[in-house]
Amino acid sequence: MPLxxxxxxxxxxxxxxxxxxxxxxxxxxxxxxxPLVATDAALLLPVxxxxxxxxxxxxxxxxxxxxxxxxxxxxxxxxxxxxxxxxEGDLPExxxxxxxxxxxxxxxxxxxxxxxxxxxxxxRAGLEVxxxxxxxxxxxxxxxxxxxxxxxxxxxxxxRTIG
Length: 163
Prior knowledge:
This protein is α+β, with helices and mostly antiparallel strands and 163 residues long. It folds into two domains: 11-102, Roll (PH-domain like); 103-162, no CATH class. The protein has helices spanning 11-14, 91-102, 145-162, and strands at 24-30, 35-39, 42-45, 49-52, 56-62, 65-70, 80-87, 103-110, 116-122, 131-136. The strands form two sheets. Strands 4-3-2-1-7-6-5 form a seven-stranded antiparallel beta sheet, with helices on one face. A three-stranded antiparallel beta sheet has the order 8-9-10.
């Protein structure tokens, strides 16, 4: 039976500063040798971009490309980070698991006169309370006061029910 071995952590990965109280749980190198580090609280992308897990709408993996989409007020409208990985290790699986685990509650509702909103309660590392997000469907008129009032009312209902 072979022994389980961890792959050695390269100096580029060791050089990425991990905030106090966080720990590195996975890493990868880009095709150009830049490090990506997943901590228990965030994904640290090249050039100093830090994405806490509750700020990631979704992540996708299609070898060799990792795509991470940030949460925005309208579904799919957040900043998109696309990184080609040379040696992914278990980073894609860790990213998927952490993003999924950050969602504590999610519900979609139709709005009048048209459109919809997803109400999402996300876990934040180190906090007991959920962070609530309203993510509108594409095409929903988010400038309409009636639409916004409906969404806020639904959000308040979720907060009262869930916490």
